[in-house]
Amino acid sequence: MTDAQRLFIGGEWVEPDCGHYEVIDPATEEVVGLAPEASRAQVHDAARAAREAFASWSRTAPEERAAILDRAADEIQRNFASYADLAQAESGATTGTARGMQVGVSVARFRRYAKGALEPVETPLPPQINEAGPMGKAGVMGALAVRQPVGVVTCITSYNNPWANPAGKVAPALAMGNTVVVKPAPQDPLSVYRMAEALEAAGAPPGVVNVVSGTDVGVGEAAVDSPDVDMVSFTGSTAVGQRIAEVCGRGMKRQLMELGGKGAAIVFDDADLDQAVAGIGTTYAFYSGQICTAPTRVIVQRSVHDRLVEHLTRYIGFMKVGDPREQGTIVGPVISAAHRDRVESYVELGRKEGARVVAGGVRPELDRGFYVAPTLLTECTNDMRVVREEIFGPVVVVVPFDDEEEAVALADDSDYGLIDYVWSGDVARAFRVARRLRAGGVGVNTVGRNMEAPFGGFKKSGVGRDVGSYALHAYSELQAIVWPG
After folding, report:
1. Which residues fall within 8 angstroms of residue 271, CB to CB, at 6 or more apart?
2. What is the SS3 assignment for 255?
3. For the Aldehyde dehydrogenase domain, which residue ranges apply (predicted)?
4. Over the stretch 204-240, which tens digit does the pLDDT of each residue have?
5. Is 480 helix (H, G, I), strand (E, B) or coil?
6. Where are the beta strands (DSSP E) in 227-362?
7. pTM exceeding the 0.70 threshold for the entire prediction
8. Which is it for strands 375-378 and 462-463: parallel, antiparallel or unpaired?
9. Residues designated as active site
10. Which domains does the chain show, CATH number per domain?
């Protein structure tokens, strides 16, 4: 019999009011575990517990917060293998991804924000000389800008990474002295409860960390509209982010939103095509395309269009699709049958819109699991829905261009602006184009990341920035303290 997970509220493991639901392994379609279905009242209880814990936690010495985050990293590292196995079972990630990019990144983020808790929060400002007037005598006014914790933060996390994504919210929020209510994605919440156990074992006081889950939209709504919540940090679709923002607006709650993406990969005729193909190919391999930063929209100079398509087609041919636990598997399943059907419907839509399927487009012949074949669509134009909308699967579309101006125009003709990419042998041109793109980040001849660089989107790809010290700023309010010199 599978153990039934309980909620974590106010330092107690609590039976859910609304029973449990099954968490399904996307690769085997077997039950991984039973996740708790919280009631609206229980979510509000969690926020209330976080509010009660905030007063003391926000005054805790930074060194103590740092020590707890460090010990949490130790706990996760101690259970690394079992946590990676759970992450793989819940999310369908390949073994390398579950270990390195999920649990491994989680450990790194707790370590990073243990150090972050010790970063200075006070910035002295230049003194200002004031003339005598209605506000008082002449004098020199000193000032400090001080970063204060926001309060209670609701962290709503994405299904594509049940370890790194929550850690990237919880760790900096706690480092700054906030308390949190975590509402994990319903598809893979069990890993987040293990993270809560690690924080509990590390000595996080009751109420500082709370975890509530459920499939009902009311669970997420309650985590946003609770009067005890001061800020919402959300990773997910733009449509859901817009609804959350409406509620936050009514309550004047702070927001940090990492939303959808349709990353443009501009490939010039002087690019190293093998390098560009390896970067674009991560769309197929990394989380099976379920990642908002993927270079899913290839904008290639017409003179190298056919060569690039040929290289990409050949690249797909070497990608083994199948059980993520098997050695050599590159592309695992997508998260659910419903999402598989959604991705396949976009491929069919592309056909109807006039795109040509040059690779993939047919469901892999596997006995079980929610698999989508890596798919490449050519003869695309920017008015097609497959080019404009986020598919969130292993599907890449190709649009040709003639000159630099057209490349920039095509890349920026999008509702999204999270991360774009430029491949060119002319580095000066690559940087010139990068500066013109309306995106929160641009990779020049790489899909790699600098984990201290600000991360977030322009346009409908989000609000605010996190990662590195920018995350500490995101989970803080600025206070000005002024005095006469």
Report:
1. 304, 423, 424, 425, 445
2. strand
3. 13-480
4. 999 999 999 999 999 999 999 999 999 999 999 999 9
5. strand
6. 231-235, 254-258, 264-267, 297-301, 356-359
7. yes
8. unpaired
9. 258, 292
10. 7-259+461-484 (3.40.605.10), 264-451 (3.40.309.10)
